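so my prof wants the structure for this chain in the tokens format not the other one, which i didnt know existed until like an hour ago. anyway here's the sequence
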Amino acid sequence: MKTMKNLKTGDKARVASIDTGVMGSQQLLEMGLTPGSEFQLVARYPLRGPFLVKLGNNRIAVDYNLAKAVLISEPDEGLERDGLDS
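here's what i got, hopefully its the right format
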């Protein structure tokens, strides 16, 4: 299965699951990046830098190692209607 690490800037995805054995994964859940949530990758920073993710009306930075712990699936049709395109 793909992880957030496999996404390119502009890609949209749905969180399938998060490997809770990875240090810091609880923080992702607390920020709202939970299984079933849809997001868009806004930016990837070089040299294993963070990933900037649009989640609803918020933007959060996700550490490279945490991005590897976020398993993703394709977003549902109609993701654009959820406001992730703006």
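also thought this was worth mentioning. The domain at 4-77 is CATH 2.30.30.90 (SH3 type barrels.).
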